[in-house]
């Protein structure tokens, strides 16, 4: 589970039905993974994601081991990702990994005999957040088709927004309203992808004007550091902050979502409004992770790619060459291939198979 | 469970009976909380308290997740206590919290749909230590009524001593002997509270003179830093240190207690004496925490106060005002209201409802 | 379980049979330690060992609590090892400890009413690594007797090598080939011990010449810092690095072992070779730890030595004396007796009973 696109629509539906069944019959699952273990490898801190996976595994009766800060572990002493992953794969039934480098989870999956769940690889993917969003939308609205969804905040850099948009492209007749300041507008390529998938896209710079039509308002964090000029930030930020006053223009059955943690973009007074479902969304995120762990831990073991694909991961590697001899390198310096040089080459159809950066 | 006073005497007795039953039939409880989870939020380190809660939950078959040092977690990135608590409440059946600010556990309880157990909020309360003390005394003596208890060490600043005294006021005919150097004597208000509750209080500056009459000698840590003059500390400390020599003046059926960790106030030679029960006291502390977790995790969920009490926690908040506009502030700068300014006002009957500081 | 020598050959065989049974019937063990707890006290970081114990306990249905970095815990505030151990012994069914001082695990065992498992005490012992090695050899070859085992790398300082050699002395007709640069040769006393036990020892400076005869090649890490002259390291290191080229001279049924983590002494290209079993060895290490935990957690509680052996641990202690008055001190400054001065004297038959250093 490296990216949401790894799931077919049929697999997603199967997962969602499991999620509903857990919500309705929680008592049936408290022994489901008894005696099984989840390895939790957090190469950078992430309280929310880590705690939701730990709670999910424990609610299924399983155990969790791992590290939440690699500085305290010998991993910091320079062991390769490969060796750590192969060790852990021998101890666990599934592995969840957060890593600062893009492509780290895919790299890990090459060496693992058990499923790897990506809990965030740099700025690249965070598929269980997308699962959370879709599960919450489906649960609250009975489905995704035909909804009008407002996306508000940082649409330029926000990983959550890009993943959600990609996932929404699978569903029919979704209408999207983009609410952002110009500095943080959705990139042109993402807009084209929506067009190609038949998603109607509207743009609206002011949340107050946009809010009246929406079924869902999906808010995201705006980071001050994104602005070259702090004064510009101060001037614009009020257009993308949700207050009780702005909320008064919304429909009674609208729902407010947010991936959390928030900064100041949702006024705390809004929390008591019945339309605020972001805390419930987080709780449902734990439940969809329970469903995912259940499927993952029950898969039979497989031969890892590094043994299976002798040709690909062996002969065509950069390992053993000096950098100048390397036949191909990913231009993204945060790509895991730069930190772990023994990895098989990033070759793909013009994009790095680890981090999806263009290779030309 | 913010303060020991949250328990009625009847609830205490119920809890104690559960504690005895766990001691007598431990095998009956190993599945009691299977599939349930405890969130363990330690905003400052505390090995003993944390480990005793973790062990207690696991011995009931449940799981524990959380953090033991917030620096390694994104909590350090500035998320509010409110948002962290609401997240965690969605993942867990109960929550245990240690925090450096007074009133933090009460503040957390306003946002939680599940029980919050205070594992220490600054210098304010540490109710599970008091539960430990009472459970150990009751177990060892069959009851609390009528015992003569010596309290020795730092009676001025020691949170444990103050909580224990308050709890002892519930029982009949307890006699207390205070053993301390003048610098660390019990505050006058605490003495008056004992008088009002009918507790006989005697004072005795030298442990050697006091020890012969006691049923229980409750020792506490004396911190060198409490003394302005180090020479004064050196001159006085021997009067409050328990050695085998001093112990030879005690009755054979006296028992020595200590909340631990100790500094040097109990000579290690004493540990082998059958009257030393402080290690057994710590073990019983884990068992009373098992009893507490059992009751807490079985409670049904409730609507958190921040949603339920719209008036109180909404309109009367300091949130949205600049500091100069704030209508009321707690004078205690370690009170949680200073760190989390959105909290409902500290108004109460003249004392802060978070940290019990006088508001005038 | 402080040192491998604590096990009789009969106990080892019993443990090995349990290990085989767990491998063959894993489903029978998922509830074996339900409601029991393992205290995991890591006074220095060690990811591999810690994670293998945590996974082992959880796969038996038990829970794990403790700390992985004492800086974050109040242990760092200066509590004695004694007090920490007695506390933890009251909360747990067994205890696993890693400590930077030699003899720490033995010291801990004096105060514990439950079994203490040594997970590494300084440069002294690491018995569960030796258990791992023997279990893996026995599993892969059906027994240890008569095997020709090549030991390669740092034979001078490597704790793993010394422990393994000592353990091999129990078996019949083992033949050992030592492969190392002169700077890292096996100490003379260790060679004499092999001779005394009837182990045939050959020496061979070059791995290429040695490899053809071996049943097992046991590689270990060579640390650059061991060499006074870095140029010397560069000149010699290639003789003890395993590459596919050198491996081509080995028998098809040879097996390559390594305690891990590795530095550069095994080329990653070797990992795909079916003779590479070091990752499988690590996995079997978790399984032998499951067998060990099962035996340990099922033992009845006992009276700790500090209470039982009044004479030994009481009267003859250094405690209460100034250093100049101490009757006997271990000359090894990394011995636990220097950090915890209240410990009973190190007296033994001329060697320190904590760290085995010579006392004269």
Question: Any overview of this molecule?
Answer:
The structure is a homotrimer of 360-residue chains. By secondary structure, chain A is of the alpha/beta class. The two termini of chain A are 27 Å apart. The first copy, chain A, has helices spanning 9-24, 47-59, 81-89, 104-109, 127-141, 159-168, 188-197, 207-210, 230-237, 244-247, 278-298, 305-308, 310-315, 336-339; strands at residues 37-42, 63-67, 94-99, 116-121, 148-152, 175-179, 200-203, 216-219, 255-257. In chain A, strands 7-6-5-8-9 form a five-stranded parallel β-sheet. Chain A has a four-stranded parallel β-sheet with strand order 2-1-3-4. Chain A is built from 14 helices and nine strands. Chains in contact: A-B, A-C, B-C. Chains B and C meet through helix 2 and helix 11 of B and strand 2 and helix 3 of C.
